[in-house]
Amino acid sequence: MHATRPLPEHNGPTLGRSAAEELSRTLRVVADPTRLQLLSAILGSTDARATVGQLAEVLGLTQPTVTHHVRILVDDGVLVREPEGKFVWLSLDPHRRDAIEDLLR
User: Fold this and answer.
1) CB of 42 within 8 A of CB of 91?
2) Which domain holds residue 57?
3) Helix axes 63-75, 33-44, angle to 10 degrees
4) pLDDT tens-digit profile of 26-69?
């Protein structure tokens, strides 16, 4: 039998279950180099938004490849689509932006 010792004191609260589940989901979705590049390119753009065509050009990828990864990010709620005229702009969901920015630092 092992004697149990108390955990050392730490500053701040323990991560709650729902916060841990959301963070885990986000980490799974962004754990891909192409998706990290897409997010970085969007955040680094002038208005923090971009189209699939712009992302494909900047990253040297095909539009179908970008669309595939964008769909995953949109389905998880990391990115939002904003139709404007004949363009569809992609940007980070405001509720997830801080977490993504922290991951990209």
Assistant:
1) yes
2) 20-104
3) 90
4) 889 999 999 999 999 999 999 999 999 999 999 999 999 999 99
